[in-house]
From TrEMBL:
Organism: Candidatus Omnitrophus magneticus
InterPro entries assigned: DUF932 (IPR026325)
Native organism taxonomy: Bacteria, Pseudomonadati, Candidatus Omnitrophota, Candidatus Omnitrophus
Protein's name according to its UniProt entry: Phage/plasmid-like protein
Amino acid sequence: MPVFEEMAGKRIAVPDKVATIRTDTKKVLGVVGDGYKVVQNIEAFGFFDTVVGEGQAIYHTAGALGRGERIWMLAKLPKDMVVQREDIVEKYLILTNSHDGTSSLKI
């Protein structure tokens, strides 16, 4: 979708920019450069499986913020860590991604 900016009551095209849009509601999530690649949630979660090993992590919680422009997923890793023979530390990883161009996919 081309991006337009209002200037003196007129819409003008903004070169090299596109809008990311939810397919279900048609709402704009953000404005990004034309080289931006959308990583769908299912792709992001599949990437997570390749990083931790399929079946290794227990998916704990996932969610979206705002209108869906930011998503996250929390997973518990197997085998807790024991510190000083008595302190048990549970291991977790969180995956975050944005659909508005404000950040990249991160684990």
